[in-house]
Amino acid sequence: MSGFSFKLLASDGAARRGEIGTAHGTVRTPAFMPVGTQGTVKAMFPGDVRAAGADILLGNTYHLMLRPGAERVARLGGLHAFMNWPHPILTDSGGFQVMSLARLRKISEEGVAFQSHVDGSKHLLTPERAMEIQGLLGSDIQMQLDECVAAPATFEDAERAMYLSLRWAARSQAAFSNREGQGAFGIVQGSTYEELRTISANTLVDMDFHGMAIGGLAVGEGQQEMLRVLDFTLPLLPRDKPRYLMGVGTPEDILESVARGIDMFDCVMPTRAGRHGNAYTRHGKLNLRNAVHAEDPRPLDEESTCPAANAYSRAYLHHLFKAGEHLGPMLLTFANVAYYQDLMAGMRDAISHGRFAAFRQETLARWAQGAGNAG
Amino acid sequence: MSGFSFKLLASDGAARRGEIGTAHGTVRTPAFMPVGTQGTVKAMFPGDVRAAGADILLGNTYHLMLRPGAERVARLGGLHAFMNWPHPILTDSGGFQVMSLARLRKISEEGVAFQSHVDGSKHLLTPERAMEIQGLLGSDIQMQLDECVAAPATFEDAERAMYLSLRWAARSQAAFSNREGQGAFGIVQGSTYEELRTISANTLVDMDFHGMAIGGLAVGEGQQEMLRVLDFTLPLLPRDKPRYLMGVGTPEDILESVARGIDMFDCVMPTRAGRHGNAYTRHGKLNLRNAVHAEDPRPLDEESTCPAANAYSRAYLHHLFKAGEHLGPMLLTFANVAYYQDLMAGMRDAISHGRFAAFRQETLARWAQGAGNAG
User: Fold this and answer.
1) Tens of pLDDT, residues B209-243
2) Per-residue confidence at B1, pLDDT binned at 50, 70, 90?
3) Where are the domains of chain A?
4) Which fold has domain A5-267?
5) Across the interface, which of B45, B75, B295 has its CB nearest the CB of A330?
6) CA dist., res. B91 & res. A93, Å (int)
7) Is the dihedral angle over the CA atoms B168, B174, B180, B186 positive or is it negative?
8) Is the CB of residue B267 less than 8 Å from the CB of residue B226?
């Protein structure tokens, strides 16, 4: 076991290539974390998540605290053992999903009181409890509790939530169990307001978290606005800490954010899209439910090394979704996670070779070209 | 490509060990065929079906003729290529499922007219069309069209259906495309009546099919009655042809039928049970939804070589089913198919070593013992 670490290996413009060291192994950055909400990346064997190229996945504190419960997971050896994923895990604080999923939620200085969407049971999630749960799960990267407001937010709402998040950041950091090889991240809030983002970032930088997250984006503001916020927020963050853009995003969002200096991402997009018949490929997005694929003998991408992308015809995938077969979501989720990981690997390689700008142009051009013949 | 063949390698009492040769490879018997109804063994990658030990799987003509359609599958290179399963495939004739699933079905000398349960389209399935479809799919073992009556059946109903099935057997055999390495099987009918089974078996034996199936069992008559029918039917069948008991069954059904001389089985039981949270193991059946498993750190079977059975705790499987996660059905289906294949491999090995009777006793005793602590 070694301490939590971040090494910057190369940079190319604002884009960075690095390595996060945790007790459960190394995370190559820029990294995309598939989402394993309830202790499983939906419709994937953990070995395939690894085979697709993922170094780290994300677990959701809100779901796991309700079912099966953090204490139960701890008794069973922690989340890594429970879900048969011996590699790094980042957990969120639960705050975001309490606000989007729980019933009768009530936010106060102390924390968020809510009722479970599973069984109606009552809970209070405080910064201290959020860190305790993440410690019980044993996650390698633990997130402070914060309040994330949807866009558009008024300045007053954004300001109130940002300051509350800063107070919760201090309490979260104090409660962090800080076991060998684990890290805690602070979360910059402030919606789309430069003044608020600046106060939030500067305060968190002084607190010296292991890494810095940017929250409150991809919540309705649109890609252009998101990139504008990144443009003024990223220069405020220290070079020597990993930077995590929470809940983002499409392949294009990720490409543009890496160009601006983001190191880590998570999003349900590749897995959710896969379950609904949508494939992300080097040539853009395909809807396999579309009749245009019904007799197409080509695989999703004959050049992919992922068996789900290279060994099954589009016609077969179309059939599986039409027939409602489990194998459809299984194959497309695998293929999408592999595509996202291939994209990250391509960016890491391009940064190392000082050709990120060219990689970005080529990738955008291929997507634009592919969009014309996508089904 | 080689011709269709059957070699008897060993026998032990009435139990037989053998090998079926097809254009797509060898099938070790006694064999259990996982069911791939719609061109996929539900919730399994084809590579895992193979890894679990299956030599052959079963495809359903009724489902495939309706969706995606036999002609479409043929244009896409046949069923093996379509579903990425390069190993042997047996297809049923469609008759059984027309009678259980289709709407407005009407049986006549010519065949069965029906409406699709998928889209209401009208179809006529004749013995000739059933064989044509199986030829288009390219299956290695093709079944005659027959009429299967449920138990209990009156003598008159069973007799009428048996004679119709014999006339359809002759038409099926005449229509069989008989490509190199493919075989056609006749189906003995006659419900639970020895007189009818005898007429059916003797007539089909004279027709010299590549193999002999026993149909119309496991349709409500109960295990004891099924075994009684096998006891008087099996001696009527030639030693040098494979014997296939259709739609059977539980591990115990299979053990008892192998003891009587059956070589091949198919059943949705391991796959359907897996999707519903039920596991078949060496120690009997477990319902993983049961709360008794909620904190059980043991895998399904630490001695299994199947990762789904040896690498995930019962507590985790319980959680997956409680949370409605895809991975639950994926893991239990894999584990169940592997268990069924292990059981077949154990029987083949026991027959080779002349210890089938001991194997049967040990297996039954272990199940009886396990039933006490099963959840």
Assistant:
1) 999 999 999 999 999 999 999 999 999 999 999 99
2) very low
3) 5-267, 274-373
4) TIM Barrel (3.20.20)
5) B45
6) 52
7) positive
8) no
